[in-house]
Write a structure and sequence with these properties.
homodimer, mainly alpha, potassium:proton antiporter activity (chains A, B)
Chain lengths: 644, 644
């Protein structure tokens, strides 16, 4: 085939350890630089570069250096060897080279057109780390943290809107992006750019679905720092978290959509199968995630008489919490479901139930642990994205497709936000004002999930072109939109400096700052919320946590023996009141875990009821038959429930 | 060569993600099981199985299952293919198999005699995870935690003894084990068991050095739980931590010992080169580790007027602390030094300087983070050790060598502890009693480091036999000695239930419980300690932390301009007193970070001076020329420094 080449000897096994160390050191170095830069920026109150943007920038520079500074020193490979004896690639290959046996591990299948692209630069190869690390180790803590730190109260108040944006919005976005890029692809075919490529409408839809995952981590960080209006924050946060889940499952469903005949024609059977897949995978992942959380809640709740509670061993408790949450992700992946969706709902459920059972020590440990892991993983991922622009070997930069991609993404975002906001405002009593809509439109950043979905499959040429385009869109949105958040907030006259605790109370006294319609407010999707809340408060909370009324009072009388068995002994005593207060405190404490300032949650809660005057469901308003202590608890606060 | 074989298709790339998930899930499952078991055991106050022992047991069972339950389903490989075109193994190999290109990654070189041992069981292959993960990710947090949680005061009080055990003891242990196993090897050669093997005395010394790393994690956990005498605890902890470092560098020095001519003859030049290597690597790693810690201390201490301090951003601070500490390890590895030694001394230095500069939030975060990482990593490693017995492919069980190994390890431990204790007792005023010596002898468990050193090189047959033997010794010592700790403590009548805070105070009032010689106590190595302490207190502490006297008072007058520049502005004000009290609190708080009970450090500290009546150097006794506040600070406490 080709002449023999001399390769760097790889005899010294130690070299490999050291190389592993060098790679990690490069990442460490980039992260240290990022942290120092951010510190500098924070000192000067520069808000145009968030740490994720910084990490990406440094990654980019490092990628450039690795690409062009280390190239000369390495030998070029790219030689393909024949092996007629094999019919398929085995996981491990033993090769006899000059009387010495070497073991090789299967890495991947390569299309012929990618072979020449291989640079054989060892450093470059090493820096493009294993995708399984990316998916199994870096992503789960970020997603879990998002679920675990969800501002539950605000989230549920806006549940209807969030679900609409997440499900309907993602579907719209996917279809619009798909259609626009398909138009561009047709144009490219027309001018003869894509000769010999297979590029179907499903590929465009695939691109559409992966580009629909928004990741406004930068925006939300700035919102948080500036204390932007909580409702806007919640809408954006809720939307982005859920639409990641939707986009991931959608992408998977589209990638396994296989029409029988003409791949461009519509195949109803295959389409409905994909829809079925979507629903099945989503529901399955949801169930997997929540059930792990429920198991954790049950274990941490165990109150067998002979047993000391797990919460007396904070380390074991934290360990178990961590491992079970991670297992939710891994089990879902292993079962062919979507781990990210599972771990998201696991996080939400853990925060809702298990968190209440943890010891104070573990509460803080878990919060801080996941916060830290989120911080690190996020920066590593953004750093890696920066690196990928130069270290990924098979980029296909097609200006027309890139232009098409950008157009499609912005149009799709507009088609998602404005029409849906209009529809939602028909039903919502508390309208989503125009400036909020513009801000949501502007906050459609693409980040880790879009990148992750794009890099997962880069085998064919269309997929490589999509990956390149996705990467550029991520860069642009994170830097430009992320950096433009503060000016945009000013320009749109969105209220900042809202103390989350004072937020809604302030709204009641000074109506000038915000143009929300407050007098006719009524929690949207209140009926859905009410049903769920009642069930949760009456049955699930008492079974899974120490809070809520004793089951004996909520279950029908004939269930009493079972109820007594399931109820925590402590739920009967005078601990009741404390528990509930505790719950409220925890509830707020958890959701505001970035805050260091002290706050008075009970007052806040009542304050919110005062302020909006809406039928905000009160801890204890529902299903509290024989639960008289609750009244005492809220009695101290003035009640101005205007509509209730 | 051989006929074609059908292999499992590896086309579906997703399969690989899922498999990564399955592996991790297996480990998670084992760890969850371990935690639940330990919880159960703690409830019943069983102390015969520590979590590490439990993790190892479950790993063993899982290894058994993977080995024998999944074997049938997999295809057997072990076929060696010829490739005449290559002269050396390239890092990446592209192979054309039935017109499809596959990429293979270099894994390792295999000796011919190991080829047949390969089972080709994919699950088995996957479970024997990458050694670079083991070394770069799992080991550093354990070692760092050991350094970070060192009980500094007790450690320095016993510094002389600890250094003697660690350096001299490890050397003795290495030589004794080497000699005894060499005897056994000679016998094995005599009866014809090792035909065709190359087995030199240096190989035996290699085995001796790796088996000299003691890891009494189980014993120390039980000591801690039972509150065993602090001096015994410190001696064992200090010895094991330092002797790991010594053993690692020793092993490396021996492995690169290369006599020019006859490998069995003594080559003075090569020997001294090895000694030089040892000293160079040890000193280099020490310097690397401490300098990273000093950099961290300086960054966290920065007090430029324009800058807000880093400690106002606890997340950035924790992140930087974590990354710089890990970088110490990685840099040392990348530079060809010993990362574990570097990260150990980095931990000690971080605890000594940086810890004082951290915000209260970060103090807790870092402590809890490393405690948690230590917990997880330790259990993963022990779990992996259990697995390795069945998943490692090339075990060589040689009963005679195993017997020899056991004998050698016990004899060497005895030759280390008893003679050295005797010598130390000649110099020590506070003797090491016989029952302490027996307990130290008994606590010579082998663990993670011995395993890590043994698995690092398993290419030749002698090394494989050593690995197998080392693994069995680890199992035996962890289970039998670890489990026997509590009975042994009772049998040796060693005092338990000592409150660390009350410890030395109690000693003064009731002399019955311990047979330490108290009236003639004088801190051993006091002179060494004094010199270091004075320098540290006068110059290093003021430069690197907020504590200690202002540099202007400790440096000669002509240095005043420099001193003023380097001294923290806060060191001049009335904050001084608080700072110093703070330091003392931190000092104790850190060293007792497993304790949850409240304690009164100032009293404790004075208590200790009262109790032992030794020349324990007081915070403020040294070099405090113009530092009058210090006197006020200690004036409130009764001073009974009998000898000072």
């Amino acid at each position: 085939m080709e002449e023999l080449k001399k390769y760097v000897s790889v005899k010294d096994e130690d070299r490999f350890y050291h190389q592993g160390a060098v790679e990690l050191l490069v990442f460490n170095f980039l992260l240290i630089l990022t942290i120092l830069t951010i510190w500098l920026f924070k000192n000067h109150r520069f808000r145009f570069l968030h740490e994720t943007g910084g990490a990406m920038l440094y990654g980019l520079v490092m990628g450039l250096i690795i690409r062009y500074a280390t190239k000369a020193s390495d030998v070029e490979s790219g030689t393909v060897y024949e092996c007629e004896k094999l019919t398929s690639g085995p996981p491990t290959l033993l090769i006899n080279i000059t009387n010495q046996v070497y073991e090789y591990q299967y890495k991947r299948e390569i299309s012929h057109h990618n072979v020449n692209g291989h640079q054989g630069n060892a450093m470059l190869q090493k820096m493009t780390f294993d995708l399984s690390i990316f998916f199994n180790i870096l992503l789960p803590p970020i997603i879990f943290h998002a679920g675990y730190s969800l501002k539950k109260r605000h989230f549920f108040r806006n549940l209807g809107s969030i679900l609409t944006y997440a499900f309907l919005g993602t579907a719209i976005s996917c279809i619009v992006i798909g259609l626009i890029t398909y138009g561009f692809v047709k144009a490219m075919v027309h001018i003869g750019q894509l000769k010999g490529w297979e590029f179907h409408f499903t590929d465009c839809l695939f691109f559409g679905s992966l580009m629909s995952a928004t990741d406004p981590v930068t925006v939300l960080a700035i919102f948080h720092e500036l204390h932007v209006d909580t409702d806007l924050y919640t809408l954006l946060f809720g939307e982005s978290v859920l639409n990641d889940a939707v986009a991931i499952v959608l992408t998977y469903s589209i990638s396994i959509y296989s029409p029988k005949e003409n791949p461009n024609a519509f195949d109803a059977a295959a389409f409905f199968q994909s829809v079925g897949n979507f629903l099945g995978i989503f529901a399955g992942s949801f169930a997997m995630g929540s059930s792990y959380a429920v198991v954790t809640a049950l274990i941490s709740f165990t109150h067998l008489t002979k047993f000391t509670k797990l919460c007396e061993f904070p380390m074991l408790e934290t360990g178990l919490f961590f491992l079970l949450s991670w297992s939710a992700f891994l089990s879902a992946e292993a079962a062919g479901l979507t781990g990210i969706v599972a771990v998201l709902f696991c996080g939400v459920t853990q925060a809702h139930y298990t968190y209440n059972n943890l010891s104070p020590d573990s509460k803080m440990r878990t919060k801080q642990l996941f916060e830290f892991m989120n911080f690190l993983a996020e920066n590593v991922i953004f750093c890696y994205m920066g690196l990928a622009l130069f270290t990924f070997q098979n980029h296909i930069f097609n200006p027309l497709f890139i232009f098409g991609g950008f157009v499609a993404v912005f149009v799709a975002r507009a088609c998602n936000i404005y029409p849906l906001s209009f529809l939602l405002n028909l039903g919502r009593k508390q309208k989503i004002p125009r400036n909020f809509q513009h801000m949501m439109m502007f906050s459609g950043l693409r980040g880790a999930i879009a990148f992750a979905l794009a890099i997962r499959d880069t085998e064919s040429q269309p997929k490589q072109m999509m990956f390149t385009t996705a990467l550029l869109i991520v860069f642009f949105t994170v830097w430009v939109f992320g950096g433009g958040t503060t000016p945009m907030l000013t320009w749109l006259q969105i209220r900042v400096g809202v103390d989350p605790d004072e937020d809604l109370k302030a709204e009641a006294t000074s109506q000038s700052a915000s143009n929300l319609d407050k007098n006719t407010t009524k929690a949207e999707s209140a009926w859905l919320f009410r049903i769920w809340y009642g069930f949760d408060h009456k049955y699930l909370k008492p079974i899974l946590t120490h809070t809520g009324p004793p089951l004996t009072t909520t279950l029908p009388e004939w269930c009493n023996p079972v109820a007594r068995l399931l109820t925590s002994p402590s739920a009967y005593g005078d601990q009741l009141k404390d528990d509930d207060t505790d719950y409220i405190i925890n509830n707020d404490e958890l959701t505001e875990n970035y805050e260091s300032s002290a706050h008075i949650p009970v007052q806040d809660r009542t304050g919110s009821t005062q302020a909006t005057g809406k039928e905000d469901i009160h801890e204890g308003d529902l299903g509290l038959g024989g639960y008289k202590l609750q009244l005492e608890h809220t009695a101290g606060q003035p009640q101005i429930n205007s509509l209730a």
